[in-house]
UniProtKB/TrEMBL annotation:
InterPro entries: PEP-util_enz_mobile_dom, PEP_Utilizing_Enz, Phosphohistidine_dom_sf. The lineage of its organism: Bacteria, Bacillati, Actinomycetota, Actinomycetes, Micromonosporales. It holds the Pfam family PEP-utilizers. This is PEP-utilizing enzyme. It comes from Catellatospora aurea. It comes from the Bacteria. Residues 32-102 form the PEP-utilising enzyme mobile domain. Gene3D superfamilies: Phosphohistidine domain.
Length: 109
């Protein structure tokens, strides 16, 4: 099924890459350069991933969340508060993140 996930536009820009679902610190090693980091939330321990990811999508958060602030600092697109992103985005599926519109398209699952 193809569709879109929407959330809060938190850091502008567009990025295309494979969605990489990261559930915990144990999954950090799965993220490769150019992947789109998809997770429930982030905290300071997750900051190094922002230097690897092409974009970030979180299920929780707003404009002042950790993910939003760090994404802006790293100048990568971010969509936060995207409810059910972990369930709707298939790991490895190509997605387009638009951080200005707050959309993630190309969803397959």
């Amino acid at each position: 099924m193809t569709g879109a996930v929407t959330g809060v536009p938190a850091s502008p820009g567009r990025a295309l890459g494979p969605a990489r679902l990261v559930r915990s610190v144990d999954d950090f090693g799965r993220l490769r350069p150019g992947d789109v980091l998809v997770c429930r939330t982030t905290d300071p321990a997750w900051t190094p991933l922002f230097h690897v990811a092409a974009a970030v999508v979180t299920e929780t958060g707003g404009l002042l969340s950790h993910a939003a602030i760090v994404a802006r600092e790293c100048r990568i697109p971010a969509v936060v508060g995207a409810a059910d992103a972990m369930a709707l985005l298939a790991d490895g599926a190509q997605v387009l993140v638009d951080g200005a519109l707050g959309t993630v398209t190309g969803v397959t699952r």
